[in-house]
Amino acid sequence: MFDVAVFGSLFLTLFVIMDPPGITPIFLALTSGRPAKLQRRMAWQAVAVAFGVITVFGICGQQILDYLHVSVPALMIAGGLLLLLIALDLLTGKTDEPTQTKDVNVALVPLGMPLLAGPGAIVSVILAVQKADGFGGRLSVWAAIVAMHVVLWLTMRYSLVIIRVIKDGGVVLVTRLAGMMLSAIAVQQIINGLTQVIQGA
């Protein structure tokens, strides 16, 4: 009943797209300077938001996109532009917002979406759900989605130990590196979206 091949295929796809090791420095940069308890809560919130978004799109994603007349390339370009704005803030150090606003933004944007539940992950889940054959196939797809989010939570939850080791100077360095990585991800996402638009024209 349980399809191991479907589970493995989607899990590996989501692992590459969501990139738990790559999200670690970005998470550390965006949550630095906060109490450990708040950081742990933000890790949980980010994963919960990502799982909620993925679940909604997994159940009725294609209908949502069709209803809004939004194409997948448009979703990719919009997500890339949003990530680019965050990346520029990290690179220039302009992240000094009021604490409450900043807390909400980190959990929802950019961590929950579009970093974790980005266009790539959303499209992969929509296609996997559409291709799932029978109850066993659907069970395998949703098991892979749940497993991936557990891995993401564990990665961010235990990456907080790194902050205690690298101290403030290391956090600044990680922040700049995270900004550089995030800007590259954003530009690549925009390029992928534009490429699909050109190919579809």
Protein architecture, described:
89% of the residues lie in helices and 0% in strands. By secondary structure, the protein is mostly helical. Helix 1 packs antiparallel against helix 6, helix 1 (4-18) crosses helix 7 and helix 6 (119-131) packs across helix 7 (134-200). The longest helix has 67 residues, at 134-200. The protein is globular, with a radius of gyration of 17 Å. Residues 96-103 have low confidence and may be disordered.
Write the layout of secondary structure elements.
Blueprint: H1 4-18, H2 20-31, H3 36-68, H4 72-92, H5 99-116, H6 119-131, H7 134-200
Helix pairs in contact: 1-6, 1-7, 2-5, 2-7, 3-5, 3-6, 3-7, 4-5, 4-7, 6-7
Quick recap:
The protein has 201 residues and is mainly α. It is built from seven helices and no strands.
Helix content: over 70%
DSSP strand (E) fraction? Answer: under 5%
Mean pLDDT: 84
Query: Which secondary-structure class do the elements indicate?
Result: mainly alpha
Largest sheet: none
Distance between the termini: 42 Å
Radius of gyration: 17 Å
How many β-strands, per DSSP? 0
- Poorly predicted runs: 96-103
Order of helices and strands: HHHHHHH
Count, helices: 7
Shape from CA axes?
globular
Keywords:
201 residues, mainly alpha, 7 helices
